Automatic annotation (TrEMBL):
It comes from the Bacteria. Keywords: Membrane, Transmembrane, Transmembrane helix, Transport. PANTHER family: PROTON/GLUTAMATE-ASPARTATE SYMPORTER, SERINE_THREONINE TRANSPORTER SSTT. It is a multi-pass membrane protein. It is found in: Membrane. InterPro entries: Na-dicarboxylate_symporter, Na:dicarbo_symporter_sf. It holds the Pfam family SDF. The keyword Transmembrane applies. The keyword Cell membrane does not apply. The chain crosses the membrane at residues 7-26, 32-58, 70-97, 126-146, 167-190, 196-217, 238-258, 278-300, 307-327. It comes from Planomicrobium okeanokoites. This is Dicarboxylate/amino acid:cation symporter. Gene3D superfamilies: Sodium:dicarboxylate symporter.
Amino acid sequence: MKFKFGLLPRIIVAIVLGVLIGSIATENIVRIFATFTSIFGNFLNFVVPLIILGFIAPGIAKLGKGSGKLLGISTLVAYSSTVIAGVFAFVAAMFILPGFMEGRALTSLDDPEHALAQTFIDLEMAPLFGVMSALILAFLLGIGMASTGSKTMIAFFDEFQAIIEKTISVIIIPLLPFYIFGIFANMAYGGAVMEILSLFGIVFVLIIILHWLMLLLQYSTAGTLKKKNPFVLLKTMMPAYFTALGTQSSAATIPVTLRQTRKTGADERIADFSVPLFATIHLSGSTITLVSCAIGVVLLTGQSPDFGSFFPFILMLGITMIAAPGVPGGAVMAAIGLLQSMLGFDETMVALMIALYMAQDSFGTAANVTGDGALANIVDRFTSGRKV
């Protein structure tokens, strides 16, 4: 059997090598790594608006095709779960992380005072349009395609989305370990890496705990509404959880999620409709990860996260991650624009977010798909006996 060296092991190796080499390398060598990360970061900034347009426009257009009330209720339940997960993550992270981060904050992750190596060249790649322009255009076109049923436009955006997904899976994802290697080599050279590595461990443990607490909340709600034992429901969905850990894809796990959701007692018609839909629009696990990681990175820069800034970010995450591609890290790729435009993240902060997210991407996906079973039962309860 052929051994596959997955993305997560490659990222771990990249971090370790970056720390080791950055600690002993000369400035000119580190400048080579810094130059690559700068060019790749600029390319990422160029692609981000296209990712937003390519994901959201066709995602909204396809949500317009469905069966009336069932589609509306399913979408509302999924979006509510995602937003609640984000708020829950913000409260928990703000309660726990500041105490661990006290005294470890850096003045700025890319401040020259930290002696980070500079690049040899600065290659500008200006985006075709800004992030907010991309969001507005995506909403406008998505809603327009849904309301008019434009087959030509939908076909165009399906192909455009396929091109963007190919760009992510063939160019961005394979180069991410080298990008992260360069970032950590530069940080190790500047002496800022130990604070960052300590943040990784703390945030990783926190995220896994929050995932399971969110699943308990989802299944407690479903169990109460359906008058069933939530722990029995959750146990029934465990095959979907462990399948998602291996595949790192909600879409690839749909057959197992659907089978186990039916076993929980959800109406077969409801399950058949809602589970594939939730695989696209329900991302509570990914939202917990993104919000927790973002708070950790903000605290690392010495800033104080506030709910007034993060709540609009959470609301937009629930929309922006719609139809994120079925490749590892799709959710964080879709969220980069929001991190930059709404939270003011710079290139280095974005790189840390990517590294943090990728380190537990499979756990976030597992939380997403396992929660889909609870949400299908909630939708079943609200649509039972109704014409939908």
